[in-house]
User: What shape does this take?
Amino acid sequence: MHRLLRSEMFMLGGFVAAAAATILLILPPSIDPADAQRTLTPSGPLSAADVDLLIKVRQAGLWEMPAGEYAATRAQSQRVKQVGKQIMGEHQKLDQMTRDTAARLGVALPDQPNPDQQRWLAQLAAESGPAFDQDYANLLRAAHGKVFGTLALVRAGTRNAEIRKFAQEGINFVMRHMTYLESTGLVNHNQLPEPPLPSPAPPTS
Assistant: This one.
């Protein structure tokens, strides 16, 4: 009786081990959540951050191009008028690049600015003279600073060659635009977000 029980237990143990091995073979390996959000393209994986970058740059152009048109007729400063014309012209080129890149990657782009950008446009449309000059320089400078950070982060970490090239070009455009705006002498740098604090130094041994 005991000999039979030991034999049955041995067989049961073998069945359990075999079943466990089968389950491990059938179950898929664990998936990185970031990998699950990527879409494969001929130029490499396309992440949610990559798509978000294209959308943000598109929306930046959709409000900064008409803002440049406002500068031509509402600004008092000749320098602000010149900067508005420069930024508008360069955003037309950047917008074409954005749409071309999105088309190659199958990304749908918006056709209007976001609510904040629409509010800024309405604010500028209601102003003229020195008030327009001041708000144009500061609104656009703050907006460029935000998109510059997004471009830099995506450029540093994207796995997609198309996005890497696009982000690099975008960084060049935005750096020029920030310089143009600062050349007006109207940007209040004290109102811009401060850079993030450095990480604490590791303890010394």
Notes: The CA atoms of residues 16 and 22 lie 10 Å apart. The chain has a mean pLDDT of 86.
